[in-house]
Amino acid sequence: MNGLKGVAAVIGVGESDYVGDHARVRAGEKPHDSNGYAAVAFKRAIEDAGISRDDIDGLIVGPTVAYERIGEVLGINPTWGGQQDAMLAVIEACMAIKSGLATCVALVYGNDQRSAAVQYGGPEAMGGNMFLSYVYHAPWGFTSQGSLYAMMFRRFSELTGCTERHLGEVAVAQRLAASLNPGALMRKPITLDDYMASPYICAPLHLFDYCLINDGGVALIVCEAEKAKRIAAKKPVAIHGVGRFDLNRGATSLEPRLLDFYRPAQEACAKQVYDMAGVGPEDMDAVQIYDSFSCHIPFALEGYGYCRSGDVGRFMAEEGIALGRKLPVNTGGGHLSHSYMQGWNHQVEAVRQVRGECGARQVEDCRFVHYNSDVAGKAVSIIYGV
Amino acid sequence: MAQSQAVAIHYDKRMWESIRNKRMELQCCDDCGSFHYPPGPTCPKCLSLSLSWKPLSGRGKIISWVVYHRQYFDDYPPPFNVVAVQLAEGPIIITNLVGPEPEGSWIDREVEIVYEPDVRGEPINRVRLVP
Lengths: 386, 131
Fold this sequence. Notes:
- The complex is a heterodimer.
- Chain A has helices spanning 18-26, 34-49, 67-74, 86-98, 145-160, 164-179, 192-197, 225-231, 255-258, 263-277, 296-303, 312-319, 334-337, 344-355; strands spanning 8-15, 58-61, 80-83, 104-111, 200-203, 205-206, 216-224, 237-246, 286-289, 368-375, 378-385.
- By secondary structure, chain A is of the alpha/beta class.
- Chain A has a single domain, classed as Thiolase/Chalcone synthase (Peroxisomal Thiolase, Chain A, domain 1, 3-Layer(aba) Sandwich), CATH 3.40.47.10.
- In chain A, a hairpin with a 1-residue loop joins strand 5 and strand 6 (205-206).
- In chain A, helix 2 crosses helix 3 (67-74) and helix 10 (263-277) crosses helix 11.
- The mean pLDDT of chain A is 96.
- Chain B is mainly β.
- Chain B has a single domain (12-129), classed as CATH 2.40.50.840.
- Chain B contains one helix and eight strands.
- In chain B, the strands form two sheets. Chain B has a five-stranded antiparallel β-sheet, with no helix packed on it. A three-stranded antiparallel β-sheet of chain B has the order 2-1-3.
- In chain B, a hairpin with a 5-residue loop joins strand 7 (110-117) and strand 8 (123-129).
- The termini of chain B are far apart.
- In chain B, 32% of the residues are buried.
């Protein structure tokens, strides 16, 4: 199945000033609301692409802002519009382009979750209306998305021998990447001993296993491949393949999470994305993985064939997932140390790595970057490349 | 902060009544015989709309556990545990282990449902190790 192979390319990326805005929010200021962060990112993305707003004929907006209002704020009247999370926005843009409903699609996200004090656990847990498992078990004190992953990692750890110290490799590697990324929020390197000494939030997960909560915005410009070559200021970054597989059955009772670790979804998604792109895990120079919690990384490394099943603890410790080791993962610092933009900043990092724009954290001769996520059992995968 | 609240969508009401009566029931499919959790309008296995409430045996085994070190609800000061239990009838429920805790791994430990007062003094289902 060729599907969406090479149909579209990313020609522009933009992010808000995470570091400066975070300092202002912590000082009690409110630099922007979600729409404002989205607008900043959009302006930077079209500047990066070297195009004007009038080149845009599609608009897909992230989940925390309203499509109609963003369209109004940015002054875009598109032939195709929609609302999606980061990874599905990329796929929907490719589908709209393939079908001829749009040729150049802006993907725009903004989130003032820190300054607006959005809660991801407790009585006001966000997202519970979409995913019942986020709120259903509250009568037994079971709340917060972190605790769902703590429950999942505990069983995984007991069955596979991937220990807490093995898991600590994720936080340490991503902090190293962030230390080389001027746009990252948490830049002071940490050691495995620092990780082990950090407090538990919901054991077995430590503080350093949890993502940041910060304000910001991200935008990408996805353009039909031939048009991209004509209008873009920089060499377009191709979208070689996409994949998706959802595990909905038994979601609230956590069956796919606790019994299967989402593995069937990842394996089906992996087959789709690798077949479409015509490349496999051995061809990837870097991997970006949605990391609201560190344990997404070991689950994905096994699920997408980067190591043998049951071997990820050893793989992370001995072969390595840090810059300069066998498989660099989350090369900008990810959600743990760069910025929590719900998968959006991972797309930007993938594009910049393929472009070779990453300075001190650049992966040498980076040709292919694989993004994947498993949010609430929804496995999504995208392969970017030259 | 606030106290924990049950999600009591339409189909949950009967289950909560049974918990408050210390005899927890779940829906069982009249056509394929499978139990489900949480309650709902269909048998997700065979799509049957014909479901009957049946009491649980109360037996199960722990498949995973966590320990909270941060407070999210007034009625759950840390540290406290939460366990995922696979019931003898099949479904996985989330609850708390009361009484003695296992030494070493908690996985595959046999448990049984007990009813304890919640913060409002009403019975809620938790589990204890089977002696």
